[in-house]
Amino acid sequence: MAFVRACGLSELEEDTPKRVELDGTPVSVVRTEGEVFAIHDICSHANVSLSEGEVEDCQIECWLHGSSFDLRTGKPSGLPATRPVPVYPVKIEGDDVLVSVTQES
Ligand code: FES
User: Residue span of the signal peptide, if any (predicted)?
Assistant: First the structure.
């Protein structure tokens, strides 16, 4: 599982998703509730960037139709999305946020 640097920890504002591209994969990095999560940036319902949505209760909301995805599991909490979005392992090393997109969990 190869971890690559996504961004600096100090660049992340609480509850403000940051979109990055890692090995060609769009990823939304989110700092919330004292943790950092990485979730695939494209909604499973349509081609919408999740990083443009709001974060609340460890979920990120798709702004288009309102499905929220759990940042820990990628599972949608309600319709219209029915399929989960991939989430990726995160490691923090100093100020570096490292994400592995090679193995989805
Ligand atoms: S595009 Fe995300 S819920 Fe429809």
Answer: none
CATH number, position 71: 2.102.10.10
Structure tokens at 46: 């349509």
pLDDT per position as a tens digit, 8-53: 999 999 999 999 999 999 999 999 999 999 999 999 999 999 999 9
- Please give the residue range of the domain that contains residue 74: 4-99
| pLDDT per residue as tens digits for the range 67-81 | 999 999 999 999 999
Residue 4, both tokens: 């690559």
Task: Please give all residues whose beta carbon lies within 6 A of any atom in ligand 1, as ranges.
Answer: 43, 45-46, 48, 62, 64-65, 67, 80-81
The reply to whether 105 falls in a domain is no
Protein residue closest via CA to atom 3 of ligand 1: 65
pTM, full prediction: 0.94
* Atom of ligand 1 at shortest range from CA of 46: 1
